[in-house]
Design brief:
By secondary structure, the protein is of the alpha+beta class. It has helices spanning about 60-75, 100-105; strands at about 15, 25, 40, 55-60, 80, 90-95. It folds into two domains: about 1-45, no CATH class; about 50-105, Alpha-Beta Plaits. It has two helices and six strands.
């Protein structure tokens, strides 16, 4: 199944998965990941709330945090960091619940010092 960013007029050549929001070219009928029927048009914009995120780690080591953020960015994981700009210790990295398993998989071999109980 071909996933893509639509290039034509909005909604004319695209379908989306109602569960994960991934967009597909017309001609596809089912989400390759969720195995549910696709709906016509672009995916609605998802507004994230605090309850959509879970704590992935706590760390006071800014070098480790920078490395983790780089890995999550490359893996296109949706996250935010609490306390990063105000120098709170420890800093808390929160990930979108939908991305938690992927984030843990991306970080499974990384050797960093985590302070929280939820280690990747």
């Amino acid at each position: 199944m071909e996933k893509h960013v639509p290039t034509g007029p909005p909604g004319e050549d695209v379908l989306h998965c109602p569960q994960c929001g991934v967009e597909y070219v017309r001609g596809s009928t089912e989400c390759a990941d969720c195995r549910v029927p696709l709906r016509p048009g672009p995916a609605p914009e998802r507004r994230l709330e605090a309850e959509d995120f879970v704590e992935l780690l706590r760390s006071s080591n800014f070098a480790d945090l920078a490395m983790v953020k780089s890995i999550l960015d490359q893996g296109e994981v949706n996250y935010f960091v609490q306390g990063e700009r105000v120098n709170l210790f420890p800093t808390v990295l929160m990930v979108d619940k939908k991305d938690e398993a992927r984030a843990r998989e991306l970080l499974k071999d990384l050797q960093v010092r985590f302070l929280g109980s939820r280690e990747p």
